[in-house]
């Protein structure tokens, strides 16, 4: 059940079997359905998710109460509201399943315990999450200054696997356009 996660970590570092046994004892597996809320804004994030299958999205509500999608995360990525998780502050974002997903759940306290026993694990996970954060910024920056049609075209080029698996309303929210505008853009592309 945890092989996917362990194999991913092993891409970056050799991990002895005794350490794997220790790590696996602290993990939990969770299957979630599309639309399921994994973490709500306004709370302190105490779980980190590793995505084995599916897509999660980071969300928040705007001043009108409409839900905004800030980013999509997919297989072999960690997902949490990092500032809240690391600094024990109330989060302004939440996490939802953008489609059915299978996750490894790392509870903060269990992860901290693992970091004490296996210091290299903290360095490894921090390195992976830092690199992923830089990639997220690079992807988001690619959409800045573009009109809606170009943002959608760039999204299809940069994140085609996500485009095929999440709802059009989530894509529209992510790109900062209305669903009606996205429908028009898609119609004009044919």
Oligomeric status of the shown chains? single chain
> Strand share of the residues?
15-25%
- Rounded to an integer, what's the Rg over CA atoms? 18 Å
Give the neighbour order of strands across the main sheet.
1-8-3-6
Mean pLDDT value: 93
Helix content: 40-55%
What is the general shape?
elongated
Strand count, sense and barrel status of the largest sheet are: 4 strands, antiparallel
Tell me the span between the first and last alpha carbons: 42 Å
How many beta-strand segments?
8
Tally of helical segments: 9
Question: Which structural class matches the secondary elements?
Answer: alpha+beta
Sequence of secondary-structure elements: HHEEEEEEHEEHHHHHH
Low-confidence stretches: none
Describe the protein.
The structure is a single chain. The protein has 190 residues and is of the alpha+beta class. The protein contains 9 helices and 8 strands. Strands 1-8-3-6 form a 4-stranded antiparallel β-sheet. It has a 4-stranded antiparallel β-sheet with strand order 2-7-4-5. β4 and β5 (67-73) form a beta hairpin.
Quick synopsis:
This protein has 190 residues and is an alpha+beta fold.
Layout of SSEs?
Elements: H1 3-10, H2 17-25, E1 28-32, E2 37-39, E3 47-53, E4 56-61, E5 67-73, E6 78-79, H3 82-87, E7 94-97, E8 101-107, H4 108-117, H5 119-143, H6 148-158, H7 160-163, H8 168-175, H9 179-189
Antiparallel strand pairs: 1-8, 2-7, 3-6, 3-8, 4-5, 4-7
Helix pairs in contact: 4-5, 8-9
